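Record pair follows.
FIRST:
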Amino acid sequence: MIMKKTLFIAVISILVTSCGILFATTTPEEEKALAESVSKSVSDMDFRIDVDTVLPMAGPAIQTFGEYFLEIRDGKVTSYLPFRGTSTIASFGGPSGIEFEDYPIKPKVSGQRKKDTPTRIRFDAESGSDTWEVTIEIWDNGSASIDCNNAYKSSMRYQGNLRTSIEE
């Protein structure tokens, strides 16, 4: 019996130690620098969100590998986001996903700089003949979510990470 307890404690100790090696830890200084970088990008409205998870209203989550994004720059939004939902109207032609092409926006920002609360950015944009209400939530650590709502199509949610320096 004592042997089983000792073996159990040894296995747990190894697992705990290996988890510390697998998951990177950040210092408070690094967290503060990242939060400042995120804050500047959001206040300048100059950032890109690389989507890594697509969450359709109905159906399982879909992991992606860097092909989908939403970018805000110079008062315009550009995106390449998949649509995996249903529609109550027939759509002919146009994009197969939620694609904004340098669409001018007037974002409304709320919640900025409240500890443990994401900054929310809201705007409307057109993709083909569809108008989408978009809400972006960005946390100090750079994680972000994008909600896209349309009167005639299923809502979509995307999760990803903020890229603070946009490359030309």
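SECOND:
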Amino acid sequence: TNRYDVFATGKDGQLYQKWWDPAKMGGDQWSEWAPLGGQLVGPPTATVSGERIDIMGTGTDGHFWQLVWDGANWAPWLDLGEAP
């Protein structure tokens, strides 16, 4: 709620997150980039439902990977198998 999240694959292959929350960041500041791990090739895909965020992307192993924010914590990366 009232927050923006940006996700990107870094040069090192890790997933990174940056967010802007006017209530917590002084109204006009973005956070620093925070590493979320993983080893991705290409950009991630994010979906949001309520406070849940699902991030998906193709790993360097050719598998499709998912990372979930439940509104309080990031769950461990989940291997969804080989990408099509």
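COMMENT: The radius of gyration is 13 Å.
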